[in-house]
């Protein structure tokens, strides 16, 4: 599909699934290399709901033992950030002493990543890493290094591949940009 309509907005294709898949292949290769000798299985942290599709694609490419833990944070209303991050669901398992790979759909301002890193430090994680499918470098306001970025995009609102507009649009396998 070239265009989709969600509520009052129309979106056009920005990144087709084939390109997303190829970018995930590359990131998975790097993570496999970096974590292949882990003594304690690393934790993959799924940040609900946006990361669901990326997590599914990424985890099937990983060839070391790993555990899935989830949490839910919210900061967006409609097409813009509120600047405040709320934890809507706590960590679903103990991560004390574990290496945690945060799996995010997108890093925009970076507020969510900073909040997550603090939550993980407070929970006693040994170390945390950021693994994001998408990144908007122009919107990023933090010093936290992003360990694994699959695709950089312009500072525009997008949906699809897990990302939503008012909770809709997560199911589309391509990524769409607002058609202005
Ligand atoms: P940050 O805290 O500003 O980095 O925003 C992170 C969260 O905002 C992401 O995990 C997404 O859930 C949401 N978000 C940021 N940009 C977009 C977008 O373009 N479309 C949909 N959701 C977005
Ligand atoms: Mg998210």
Condensed summary:
With 180 residues, this protein is of the alpha/beta class. It has helices spanning 17-35, 52-59, 111-122, and strands at residues 3-6, 9-15, 43-48, 67-77, 80-89, 99-107, 127-135, 148-152, 158-159, 175-178.
| Overall geometry | globular
Count, helices:
3
Mean of all residue-level pLDDT scores: 96
Q: Going across the major beta sheet, what is the strand order?
A: 5-4-3-6-7-8
What helical percentage do the residues reach?
A: 10-25%
What Rg, in angstroms, do the CA atoms define?
16 Å
* Intertermini distance: 18 Å
Low-confidence sequence ranges? none
Please give the number of β-strands: 10
Question: How can the largest sheet be summarized?
Answer: 6 strands, mixed
Bound molecules: inosinic acid, magnesium ion
Report on this model:
A 6-stranded mixed sheet has the order 5-4-3-6-7-8, with helices on both faces. A 4-stranded antiparallel sheet has the order 1-2-10-9. The model has no long low-confidence stretch (mean pLDDT 96). The protein is of the alpha/beta class and 180 residues long. The chain contains 3 helices and 10 strands. A hairpin with a 2-residue loop joins strand 4 and strand 5. Helix 1 packs across helix 2. The protein binds inosinic acid and magnesium ion. Magnesium ion binds next to strand 6.
Give the helix/strand layout.
Elements: E1 3-6, E2 9-15, H1 17-35, E3 43-48, H2 52-59, E4 67-77, E5 80-89, E6 99-107, H3 111-122, E7 127-135, E8 148-152, E9 158-159, E10 175-178
Parallel strand pairs: 3-4, 3-6, 6-7, 7-8
Antiparallel strand pairs: 1-2, 2-10, 4-5, 9-10
Helix pairs in contact: 1-2
Inosinic acid binds at residues 50, 75-76, 81, 104-112, 157-159, 163-164.
């Amino acid at each position: 599909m070239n265009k989709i309509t969600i509520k009052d907005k129309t979106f056009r294709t920005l990144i087709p699934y084939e390109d997303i898949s190829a970018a995930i292949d590359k990131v998975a290769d790097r993570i496999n290399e970096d974590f292949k000798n882990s003594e304690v299985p690393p934790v993959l942290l799924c940040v609900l709901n946006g990361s669901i599709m990326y997590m599914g694609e990424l985890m099937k490419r990983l060839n070391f033992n790993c555990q899935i833990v989830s949490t839910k944070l919210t900061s967006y209303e409609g097409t813009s950030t509120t600047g405040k991050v709320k934890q809507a669901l706590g960590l679903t398992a103990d991560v004390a002493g574990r290496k945690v790979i945060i799996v995010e759909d997108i890093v925009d301002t970076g507020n969510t990543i900073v909040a997550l890193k603090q939550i993980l430090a407070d929970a006693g994680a040994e170390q945390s890493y950021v693994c994001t499918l998408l990144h908007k470098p122009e919107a990023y306001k933090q010093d936290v290094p992003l360990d694994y970025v699959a695709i950089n995009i312009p500072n525009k609102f997008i949906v699809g591949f897990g990302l939503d507009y008012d909770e809709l649009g997560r199911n589309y396998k391509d990524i769409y940009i607002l058609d202005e």
